[in-house]
Structure to design on (706 residues):
């Protein structure tokens, strides 16, 4: 379906019913609710620190035009001024004393005016402060953070998929004594929040000498009870006959796991992969605890560094937030179909 | 190719016993059919042989080698599942090659075996397809092919035809029989359809409630059923089973009122209640003196044969089969004679009474 058809689809072709209008209004509201913050974030990420702090805030990244005027070393801000005689002129501001501004005509620097600030309107133009993106990426080792985040996310997701699927296989297909107990223990750990085990796990990581290593972020969270449970439930739905057919076909447990169960559990694995990417990419508390050196920071910790005690560099913070959103957004754009069907199939919401 | 011996095999799920001591010997190259109503334990017995279920007690031997504790993968058997159980993510070729890869055969050998089986089963054109792109009959053949390539000691079939439509079932039945004739392996086949059992089996094992009721060739079971259950189960339409009473040695009265008929009564005493069994085709229409007078409830004219469903007071409905087209109407009286040589007598416990037995 072409976008134009999609956007003008109606209950009955060619006719507008009030339910159509209501539906579109509701959907439009949804779009605004979902997208307005993101759009605002993206637009704001192109503003300078000054225009971010401006009140009232502007939606678009407008910045005041500046002109170079002969005889003044600095570029001067440009205003539209209404003079005493009612004439409107574009003047550059030299300095401002109380409510009176001293202005100069850029075309004729000798001509100076004194204009009350109330009669000045800043001349603005659309300008994207791309330095918000380039500076942190160059100066603040943000590429390093980005790489650390990608490394943690990819490796941790792969390890998570491998370990969780093996555990799920054991708990769903492999027969052994105490299977139910093992399952209950795994499920039981779901009830323990990370804040409770933060300190003990930190102590373990310290003893292992992993502090400030990315492995300290990757390893403790590699086996997630949620993932084990999700995969186990899916594997239980695989036809028993297939597993038994493989047993009859002289397949070892490892071969059944790797060649039969893993390919068939692909939808559930995709869902877990997506969740794992999102968890790992957005993870904050644990990396903050174990990563203290700048070169091992992940993106989220790096972002935190912009938020100082006295001053927050909003322009960098917003720009890098956009950068950190891009991979997750891409994952969603390309795997959206997988997510929807996978979640529907695995019953995970 | 191998023989199989079961020695007092028992199986219980928890406290529920489903197999109550099965003794059975299957010779090399035999086509054996396990048949019985649903829940009789025939599939469980097959899974026990396959190694997919443990026995609670008893012994299983393949070629005189005890395999009771051996896992399924080490027994060297192949099984065709009711659901076919084709690996959905593999092509037909990969499905058939999977077991051979697990056996560690060389690529060339695997390829040769798969292609030979594919030719035999007319699957050559479909080797690159995934199972979901195949029809039911083709999937069935792939499942059989997967078993054939392994050259197993024994083939196990678990109701393999039950998912096919009637026409395809008949066709595949013939193919399976032809296949057995061609490769000559020992085959154990589970079905609840006695027609499948009759047409394919060298020997039939009739099971009920986890016990063997009778083992024999199809015609043995048909002609000399050991008990009421086998008599009623084998044959379609089923044997008429009529309540009777022994009048004197060699004579029994059917129902309350009928004439005594000649039947071997064995050791049954006069006055003992019994059941007379007579197959629909062994009832003749009587011109003169009749054994029983019936009234016709329903007539089925099939052209080549005619079925009457008739009743008499105090007796269950009786099916009568006549060759050719017999012009009788519903409601008419039907006088019948039983052929004494084909009458079966069962005692009150349901066991067959044999002459001199």
């Amino acid at each position: 379906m072409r976008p134009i058809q999609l956007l003008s689809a109606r209950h009955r072709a060619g006719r507008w019913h009030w339910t159509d209008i209501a539906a579109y209004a509701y959907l439009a509201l949804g779009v605004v609710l979902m997208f307005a913050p993101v759009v605002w974030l993206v637009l704001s990420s192109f503003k300078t620190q000054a225009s971010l702090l401006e009140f009232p805030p502007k939606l678009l990244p407008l910045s005041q035009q500046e002109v170079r005027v002969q005889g003044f070393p600095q570029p001067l801000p440009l205003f539209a001024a209404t003079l005493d005689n009612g004439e409107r002129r574009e003047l550059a501001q030299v300095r401002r004393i109380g409510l009176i501004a001293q202005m100069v005509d850029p075309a004729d620097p000798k001509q100076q005016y004194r204009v009350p600030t109330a009669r000045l309107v800043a001349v603005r133009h659309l300008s994207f402060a791309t330095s918000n993106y380039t500076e942190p990426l160059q100066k603040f080792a943000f590429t390093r953070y980005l790489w650390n985040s990608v490394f943690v996310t990819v490796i941790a997701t792969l390890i998570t998929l491998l370990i969780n699927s093996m555990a799920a296989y054991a708990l769903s297909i492999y027969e052994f004594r105490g299977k139910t107990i093992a399952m209950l223990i795994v499920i039981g750990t779901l009830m323990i929040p990370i804040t409770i085990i933060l300190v003990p796990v930190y102590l373990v990581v310290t003893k292992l000498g992993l502090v400030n290593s990315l492995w300290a972020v990757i390893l403790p969270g590699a086996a997630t009870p949620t993932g084990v449970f999700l995969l186990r439930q899916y594997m239980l739905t695989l036809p028993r006959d297939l597993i038994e057919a493989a047993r009859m076909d002289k397949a070892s447990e490892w071969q059944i796991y790797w060649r039969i169960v893993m390919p068939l559990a692909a939808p559930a694995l995709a869902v877990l992969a997506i969740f794992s990417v999102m968890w790992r990419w957005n993870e904050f508390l644990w990396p903050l605890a174990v990563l203290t050196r700048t070169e091992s920071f992940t993106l989220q910790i790096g972002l935190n560094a912009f938020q100082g005690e006295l001053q927050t560099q909003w322009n960098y913070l917003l720009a890098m937030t956009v950068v950190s959103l891009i991979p997750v957004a891409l994952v969603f754009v390309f795997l959206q179909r997988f997510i929807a069907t996978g979640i529907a199939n695995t019953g995970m919401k | 190719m191998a023989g199989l011996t079961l020695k007092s095999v028992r199986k219980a799920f928890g406290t529920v016993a489903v197999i109550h001591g099965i003794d059975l010997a299957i010779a090399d190259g035999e086509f054996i059919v396990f048949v019985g109503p649903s829940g009789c334990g025939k599939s469980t017995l097959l899974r026990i042989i396959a190694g997919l279920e443990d026995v609670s007690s008893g012994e299983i031997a393949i070629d005189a080698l005890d395999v009771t504790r051996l896992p399924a993968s080490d027994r060297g058997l192949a099984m065709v599942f009711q659901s076919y159980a084709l690996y959905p993510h593999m092509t037909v070729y990969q499905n058939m090659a999977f077991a051979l890869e697990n056996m560690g055969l060389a690529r060339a050998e695997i390829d040769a075996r798969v292609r030979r089986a594919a030719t035999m089963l007319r699957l050559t054109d479909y080797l690159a397809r995934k199972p979901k792109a195949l029809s039911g009959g083709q999937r069935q053949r792939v499942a059989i092919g997967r078993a054939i390539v392994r050259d197993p000691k024994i083939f196990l079939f678990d109701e393999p035809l039950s998912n096919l439509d009637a026409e395809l079932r008949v066709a595949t039945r013939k193919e399976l029989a032809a296949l057995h004739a061609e490769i000559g392996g020992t085959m154990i086949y589970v079905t609840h359809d006695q027609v499948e059992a009759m047409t394919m089996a060298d020997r039939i094992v009739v099971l009920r409630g986890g016990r063997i009721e009778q083992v024999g060739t199809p015609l043995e079971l048909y002609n000399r059923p050991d008990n009421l259950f086998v008599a009623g189960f084998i044959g379609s339409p089923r044997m008429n089973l009529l309540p009777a009473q022994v009048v004197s040695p060699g004579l029994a009265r059917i129902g309350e009122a009928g004439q005594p008929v000649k039947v071997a009564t064995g050791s049954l005493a006069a006055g003992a209640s019994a059941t007379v069994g007579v197959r629909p085709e062994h009832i003749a229409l009587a011109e003169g003196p009749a054994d029983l007078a019936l009234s016709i409830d329903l007539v089925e004219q099939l052209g080549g044969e005619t079925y009457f469903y008739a009743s008499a007071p105090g007796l269950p409905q009786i099916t009568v089969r006549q060759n050719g087209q017999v012009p009788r109407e519903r409601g008419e009286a039907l006088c019948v004679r039983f052929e004494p040589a084909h009458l079966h007598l069962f005692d009150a416990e349901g066991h067959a009474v044999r002459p001199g037995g």
Remarks:
- Chain A touches chain B at residues 239, 241-242, 244-252, 255, 259-260, 263-264 (CB under 8 Å).
- Residues 132-346 of chain A form a domain with the MetI-like fold fold (CATH 1.10.3720.10).
- Chain A has a mean pLDDT of 85.
